[in-house]
Amino acid sequence: MAAALTSPRNVRDGEAAATPKRAVLCAAAALSVAAVLIHVWAAFQHFQQWWGYGAMFLATAAVQAIFAAGLLRRPGQQFLLSVVAGNLSIAGGYVVTRTVGMPFLGPHAWHPEKVGGLDLAATASEVALAVAVITLLVGRYRAAVGHVLLLFGVVGALSAGGWGISSSLGAEPPAARVGSWVQAPGGLLRVDRVAPESMAAMQMDKFAEQGMSMGDPMGMDMAPEGQRRFAVDVTLAAGEGGDLAYSADDFRLTGEGMEGAGPLRTTLTDGPVPAGGRISGTVVFQAPEDADGLELSLGVGGDPVALPLEPTSGENGGDGGGHEH
């Protein structure tokens, strides 16, 4: 009996069975290393948003590095189960940040991130890794994964349904586009054009005629590092029933990644627009380079106009800034 158990044929069969398992472990470790590299790269970007976001990325990378090392050292069933649970949790966190935003934490809490190429690659690596490792689980460990996946599915379905209902009930109408009239207290506002301030320099004569204060001979001072400036051509119209009273401070710029801000300067002079009249001018704003979803409104309760300016820094500045869970 003992000789049969240790015969060359049984040894060859054991080696043949171990070969596919070893290949799966190596592939899973490679996927984990890929996720580590993406998270480390994204951490530096997210430190610019808030130190806590960067720290979370580094912590995630460290955990996935431990997974990669462990997968190459003949891991036991409990370790494999932790790899599956950990990577599915990280992938689930990604879905949360792209639907409802990071819960509670940081300056961008509850603001959904945009989907980007690298973050999708990291999430795909995590899901593929988990699926690969599941094939190596046996007995009660594989059964435990089945129960966990069922629980994740139920919670995910309920969360998605609740989020969809709450979003539809509390949804605000989208901001108007450039060229459309919107309501403002006492009249109407229309954004006619949006351009980087450098383009507005060519209109220096018009600015000077209307008393606009210029910072240097070229008609502009320099924006601080990490900021950008742009000019917005606007038209204000008063209704037939009365004058439209306004001041430069009534213009408000808002967006993701910034606090509300007023204009730096304007060609418009404070004062009422007479009933039935119109006035046009240019308003210059400053916003962080990575600010997104910029909108302009006039006065409290005025309807917003979407400004077609994309973030200019970071991969996801427009695209999500990396893989944020």
TrEMBL record:
Residues 315-325 have a biased composition (Gly residues). The chain crosses the membrane at residues 23-44, 50-72, 79-97, 117-138, 145-165. It comes from the Bacteria. Residues 301-325 are annotated as: Disordered. Keywords: Membrane, Transmembrane, Transmembrane helix. Signal peptide: none annotated. This is DUF4352 domain-containing protein. It comes from Rubrobacter tropicus. The lineage of its organism: Bacteria, Bacillati, Actinomycetota, Rubrobacteria, Rubrobacterales.
